[in-house]
Amino acid sequence: MTDPWWHQFLFGFYPYIALTMFFVGSLVRFEREQYTWESDSSQLLRKRQLRLGSMLFHLGVLVVFFGHLVGFLMPEPIVLALMSPHVHEMMAMVAGGVAGVFALIGITVLAYRRFTDPRIWSNTRTSDVLVLVILWLQLVLGLLTVVFSLNKLPGYSFEVLVQYVQGIVTFRPGNADLLIGVPWVYQVHIFLGLTIFLVFPFTRLVHIWSGFASVFYLIRPYQIVRTRRRSLER
């Protein structure tokens, strides 16, 4: 089967364009626009919907993210030492499916809250709408991949998808060729996932870095605070 130029671009070059923008763009924004490095919370409005949607979305998306990270990037010898390829695939479908449903319900609640409340909508930027739409579509596609995987459609192979993701990290030559013949839902899911990395530095998603960086609070030195009480007593 021939490899069209657009396929080579989308799955061979685009991953490195997106990841370069992700890391370099985040660094530049932190260096030049630190005061925009925030989640722009609207927690004072419709607290109940925000609490429900945020809890479901963040719980689900964290499981999905770390599940993808570990499930696809764990070296094959370690995976085979722990479980069979079939068990690996079933764990990915079950855990990813349940977490994906949680995240999809959560982001739907958050989107409804943002789009229907005039006060929240008036403070909504174009980038906020773009992020909501991309994340919602990505979660729907992720759940569709579970359905496609259960049906074992022609061209589908969980091991091939794992090899492709690992090939991006290891700079494997001809890595895009692995996705030739793979069902469209997996290709679109991969492309949209890479697009999230591409737009990441230009949206409120950058606050995710701060969440990971908060771990360093556990090991930082104690902060010394001096009060004026003693000096006033003198």
UniProtKB/TrEMBL annotation:
All residue ranges annotated as the NarG-like domain in the record: 7-228
Principal location listed in the UniProt entry: membrane
Signal peptide: none
Membrane spanning residue stretches: 6-30, 50-70, 90-110, 130-150, 190-219
Membrane topology of the entry: Multi-pass membrane protein
A Pfam family per the record: Nitrate_red_gam
Protein localization: Cell membrane
Keywords on record: Cell membrane, Electron transport, Heme, Iron, Membrane, Metal-binding, Nitrate assimilation, Oxidoreductase, Transmembrane, Transmembrane helix, Transport
PANTHER family (UniProt xref): NITRATE REDUCTASE PRIVATE CHAPERONE, REDOX ENZYME MATURATION PROTEIN REMP FAMILY, RESPIRATORY NITRATE REDUCTASE 1 GAMMA CHAIN
Stated name of the protein: Respiratory nitrate reductase subunit
